Every structure is written in C-alpha cells, then in structure tokens.
C-alpha cells in the first residue's frame, strides 16, 4: 500500500512539473490565458490510471496561475487545486510546494508542515547535450509528537536528443530529457525519468523506470487547446 501511494505521488509530481511558461518564456511551455490541456496516466501495461486537466486561468506580468483538476481512472474528480509558475529571465521557475500531490496536503492539512527546497528551472534555450540544474524538496510533518520527513531529489538532469513523438493530441517535435529521481520517506526509492517536451506545448510524454530499468508507468498528452 505504501509503495502504491509513493508511486502515485511520484506520478503526480512529474505531471505537475510538466506544465507552463509565459510570453517572455514561451519557448517550450504555453503561457497564455485560456490554454487547456489534459495529461493521462497509464500503468506499465497501458491501462488508464487517471488524468489531470490543466488550465491557465490568469497571467499577471511574469506569473501564471494554473488550475488543475485530478480525476481517477473512471473519470471521477478527486480534487482540484491551483498554483503559480514564474518566468525569470530566460527560464521558468516552478515552486516545489506547488508540485506536491494535493491529496498529501489534504491528508496532513491539520498538521504542522515545514517545506523547503530548490525550485525546478527549465531554460528556453534547450540544446542537445545540455545539463540542467538539480532540484530538491524537503517536507517535515509534525504528527502529534511524531515527525515524518520526506525528501525528493531530481539529479543529473540532461537534454539527450531531439525526436518526434505521437500521442492522441497529435505529433510533436520534442526535446528528450532525462533525470534521476530519489524519494526518501521512511525508505529510499530511486527512479529514472524520461520526458519529452515540445515548443509551445509543454510535456508530451514521460516515462518512469525503476532502479532495474523496468517501466513502471507513463503519462502522455491526450488533448491540447488554446
């Protein structure tokens, strides 16, 4: 059960990561009010496990507000939330606190939480062979005298190649990125993430692999509308 919850958390984390940009930072992510798109999650056998609908609801200067609606495999809405993405010069800065699974916040909403970390940065001028900055998040939860700590590290982020990817939303020319993800929450889990992003669109597909290189699940863009 714990392993399943952690896997779901990782998937939500990756999906949330794959969202947005702004007029001055629009190279690889949409940053236009009214843009809507959907990313669907699948297990390793291709069975649908859920979906997330995104909408850019507001753009104020260099900050975009994004609304997300999370659905289960049967299309039932689980929860909604919103967060912000900031354009900083030639890159996007994504707040780690905004990337947490909303169910995690709901579960511990009445408890004291201390969240720190380093934002994820994604530059506009991606090039094959480029190395990107690491990112991390630490969350300490006070559970009535007991403390639980969770840490997520994104390491060895690289831009690997260019290639074309086809999903139900269309065919896109993408940059293929990869990184190592480590999660510590009582136990340590390691993952390898592969992700494809397209200019003006954002994430088109991502794949999660365990430490042995076996596919755990994937997500892909299933609709996109400006």
Brief overview, please?
The chain has 226 residues and is mostly beta strands.
**Strand arrangement in the largest pleated sheet:** 6-8-9-10-11-12-13-1-2-3-4-5-7
Largest sheet: 13 strands, antiparallel
Low-pLDDT residue spans: 16-23
Please state the structural category.
mainly beta
- What is the general shape? globular
Q: How would you describe the overall organization of this protein?
A:
This protein is 12% helix and 61% strand. The protein has 226 residues and is mainly beta. The protein has helices at residues 2-17, 96-99, 102-107, and strands at 36-43, 48-60, 63-72, 77-88, 91-94, 112-118, 120-123, 135-143, 146-167, 170-185, 187-198, 202-210, 215-225. The longest helix has 16 residues, at 2-17. The protein has three helices and 13 strands, in the order H-E-E-E-E-E-H-H-E-E-E-E-E-E-E-E. Strand 12 and strand 13 form a beta hairpin. The relative contact order is 0.19.
What secondary-structure arrangement, pairings included, does this model have?
Blueprint: H1 2-17, E1 36-43, E2 48-60, E3 63-72, E4 77-88, E5 91-94, H2 96-99, H3 102-107, E6 112-118, E7 120-123, E8 135-143, E9 146-167, E10 170-185, E11 187-198, E12 202-210, E13 215-225
Antiparallel strand pairs: 1-2, 1-13, 2-3, 3-4, 4-5, 5-7, 6-8, 8-9, 9-10, 10-11, 11-12, 12-13
